[in-house]
């Protein structure tokens, strides 16, 4: 993905109400997300690098990353049962086919498995709450 496309995406997120945008081209995924409320100053010394002119939009790129999305609407469960450890945590290494989540829809429990091996770079904070079809649940790099 060329720099002009990335700058256009950053400008779009900075001017709109969009809080997160992920675009994949070939084997590169560009994630742009709003880290501050519009009109607020970014926190200094946060360690986040902002692109020139990006304002409150931050860019994160992971070559070869894969977004795990909810295939159905339902209640997301991060662990096999209440009071048990989650299936996976941020930073965990996973193997293809490993259970990541369970989505409960109409009393049917749908297992969400890792589509490939890698490391969990991002994971949903939702546990016991509703997710919509297409919501990003995790990112594997």
Q: N-to-C terminal Cα separation, in Å? A: 18 Å
- Assembly annotation: single chain
* Average of the residue pLDDT scores: 77
| Total number of strands | 11
CATH superfamily caption of the largest domain? RNA polymerase II/Efflux pump adaptor protein, barrel-sandwich hybrid domain
What do you see in this structure?
The chain starts with a helix and ends with a strand. It has one helix spanning 3-15, and strands at residues 20-25, 28-34, 57-63, 66-69, 74-77, 93-94, 99-105, 108-113, 118-123, 130-131, 136-140. Strands 4-11-9-6 form a 4-stranded antiparallel sheet, with no helix packed on it. The chain folds into 2 domains: 3-63, no CATH class; 67-140, OB fold (Dihydrolipoamide Acetyltransferase, E2P), CATH 2.40.50. It is mostly beta strands and 141 residues long. Mean pLDDT is 77; it is low at 37-61. It has 1 helix and 11 strands, in the order H-E-E-E-E-E-E-E-E-E-E-E.
Give the helix/strand layout:
Blueprint (H helix, E strand, L loop, with lengths): L2 H13 L4 E6 L2 E7 L22 E7 L2 E4 L4 E4 L15 E2 L4 E7 L2 E6 L4 E6 L6 E2 L4 E5 L1
Antiparallel strand pairs: 1-2, 2-3, 4-11, 5-7, 5-10, 6-9, 7-8, 9-11
Index terms:
single chain; 141 residues; mainly beta; OB fold (Dihydrolipoamide Acetyltransferase, E2P); 2 domains; 1 helix; 11 strands; globular
């Amino acid at each position: 993905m060329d720099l002009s496309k990335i700058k256009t995406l950053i400008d779009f997120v900075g001017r709109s109400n969009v809080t997160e945008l992920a675009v994949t081209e070939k084997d590169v995924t560009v994630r742009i997300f709003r880290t501050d409320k519009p009109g607020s100053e970014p926190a200094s010394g946060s360690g986040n690098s902002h692109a020139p002119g990006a304002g409150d939009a931050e860019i994160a790129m992971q070559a070869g990353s894969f977004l795990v999305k909810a295939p159905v609407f339902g209640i997301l469960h991060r662990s096999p049962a209440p009071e048990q450890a989650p299936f996976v945590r941020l930073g965990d290494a996973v193997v293809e086919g490993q259970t990541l989540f369970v989505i409960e829809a109409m009393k049917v429990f749908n297992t969400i498995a890792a589509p490939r091996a890698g490391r969990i770079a991002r994971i949903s904070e939702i546990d016991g709450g509703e997710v919509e079809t297409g919501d990003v649940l995790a990112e594997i790099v």
